[in-house]
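Task 17 of the worksheet. Students: predict the tertiary structure of the chain below and write it out as structure tokens. Keep your answer in the requested format; marks are given for formatting as well as content.
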Amino acid sequence: MTQQGRNPHEECQIFINTHPYKVAGPSISFEQVLALDNIPTTGIDLGLFDVDWKHGNIVGSLTPGKSVDLQNGMKFDAGKSNRS
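Model answer:
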């Protein structure tokens, strides 16, 4: 999902739970998304969190240890899962 001609380390504006952030690429990890939005994860199984992303009509999910290539304007929904 890389854009041709774009500097991979260029800052992108993304939104996590509607909060805007400027981050440098080329990618962002599950853990970085949670940390950026100050979601407390200390001592908690990361499998209990969800990170979903959207850019235009393209959607996806991140799991612990995974990352996604950054695109300017990406939107992330992150937080504790509703699973019990």
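Marker's comment: The domain at 11-41+51-80 is CATH 3.10.20 (Ubiquitin-like (UB roll)). The longest strand covers residues 49-55.
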